[in-house]
Write a structure and sequence with these properties.
Helix 1 links the parallel strand 1 and strand 2 (44-47). The strands form 2 sheets. Strands 1-2-3-4-7-8-9-11 form an 8-stranded parallel barrel, surrounded by 8 helices. Strands 5-6 form a two-stranded antiparallel sheet. The chain is 44% helix and 18% strand. The radius of gyration is 20 Å and the shape is globular. It has one domain (2-346): TIM Barrel, CATH 3.20.20. It has helices at 23-40, 60-68, 88-101, 117-121, 129-145, 183-192, 209-221, 243-261, 272-278, 290-304, 320-346, and strands spanning 2-7, 44-47, 75-82, 106-111, 148-151, 159-163, 175-179, 195-199, 231-240, 286-289, 308-312. By secondary structure, it is α/β, with parallel strands linked by helices. It comes from Neobacillus thermocopriae. Residues 1-303 form the Luciferase-like domain. This is LLM class flavin-dependent oxidoreductase. GO terms for molecular function: monooxygenase activity; oxidoreductase activity, acting on paired donors, with incorporation or reduction of molecular oxygen. InterPro entries: Bact_Lucif_Oxidored (IPR050766), Luciferase-like_dom (IPR011251), Luciferase-like_sf (IPR036661).
Length: 347
């Protein structure tokens, strides 16, 4: 089991002071988080793409390239790339360059995007939401596999014996499809034989078992060996000395995050009792002691048999000091136990 962290780089006012840190400071803290994760022995560091003023990470490959220069072994991943509104050739070039700079540590997780601002921003039609995503996966995988590509599609100009440069340090850049709950996206990942990354941000994790089943069934129907398939789980997380302390410390930031991004819909502030339900021992919100987090990850492993877990630690205006403490707990107290126990279960 690979264990790592990811960020979306939200710029949310700190709940106590109402102050928002400058974008430049937030970016520097993201790079520092990658450095800490690498030094602590985590396996993966991810940065997600958004195109809004309340997020700072609009260009993950640039941020990950900066992180590559202060890390040595951690894998550097987009979590996720909004594939429908980026040219696949440019995306491949960016991540192949990152792969060379990092000595073979770049990966792409592609998603359709929780927000749709990028469609009008980059001149794409929202009516082509699904078609663009599917076509761009197809083209990226061809670019990944071949030094010269001839290709034609509906949404961009054709390629005729085009040189695809630079080539990455790895034979191919590992590619995953990110899914928030869409069966179609899970089936698409299986059809192409690429990894499946599930964002399980709350509720009962059991509801995602059908996605994994569809993914594996689709892969089998397409002739992809089941042994080659990979599943990852991502989720919000906060770790402290005890379950109660973790909930006490995390609630202001989690409620702040939810309130800030629902502000346009006049949603009421999340109550503590609602948060208690969301953070219960049988839910997918990873809040609690190290032991509680271990138990939740291992329970989900029994459900999904996944190979990777990524925690989003830095939401809601959380100070970097607390983020750094969580990185240390995840790496030192949680990861070794999860790796040991999943090795036993796999045998």
């Amino acid at each position: 089991m690979e264990i790592g962290i990811y960020t979306l780089g939200d710029l949310v006012p700190e709940p106590d002071t109402g102050k928002t840190i400058p974008a430049g400071q937030r970016l520097k803290e993201i790079v520092e988080a990658a450095k800490l994760a690498d030094e602590a022995g985590l396996d993966v560091f991810g940065v997600g793409e958004h195109h809004r003023l309340d997020y700072v990470a609009s260009t993950p490959p640039v941020i990950l390239a900066a992180a590559s220069q202060v890390t040595k072994r951690v894998k550097l991943v987009s979590t996720t790339t909004v594939l429908g509104t980026v040219d696949p050739v440019r995306l491949f070039e960016d991540f192949a360059t990152l792969d060379l700079l990092s000595d073979g540590r770049a990966e792409v997780i592609a998603g359709r995007g929780a927000f749709v601002e990028s469609f009008s921003l980059f001149g794409y039609n929202l009516d082509d939401y699904d078609g663009l995503f599917d076509e761009n996966i197809d083209l990226f995988l061809k670019l990944n596999a071949q030094k010269r590509v001839t290709w034609s599609g509906r949404f961009r100009s054709p390629l005729k014996d085009a040189e695809i440069a630079p080539r990455p340090a790895q034979k191919e850049i590992p590619f995953w499809v990110g899914v928030g709950g869409s069966p179609e996206s899970a089936e698409r990942a299986g059809k192409y034989g690429v990894g499946l990354t599930m964002a399980i941000l709350g509720g009962a994790p059991e509801r995602f078992t059908s996605l994994v089943e569809r993914y594996r069934q689709s892969a089998a129907e397409a002739g992809h060996p089941i042994s080659n398939l990979k599943v990852a789980v991502t989720g919000h997380a906060y770790i402290s000395s005890t379950n109660e302390q973790a909930k006490d410390e995390y609630y202001p930031y989690y409620a702040n995050y939810r309130q800030f991004f629902n502000r346009e819909h006049s949603v009421a502030q999340m109550s503590r009792s609602e948060f208690e339900q969301l953070a219960g021992p049988d839910t997918a919100l990873f809040v609690g002691s190290s032991q509680q987090i271990i138990e939740k990850i291992l329970y989900q492993y029994e459900l999904f048999g996944h190979q990777r877990f990524l925690a989003q630690l830095d939401i809601g205006g959380m100070p970097f000091k607390k983020v750094a403490e969580n990185i240390e707990r995840l790496a030192v107290e949680v990861a070794p136990v999860v790796r040991r126990e999943t090795r036993k279960l796999k045998k």
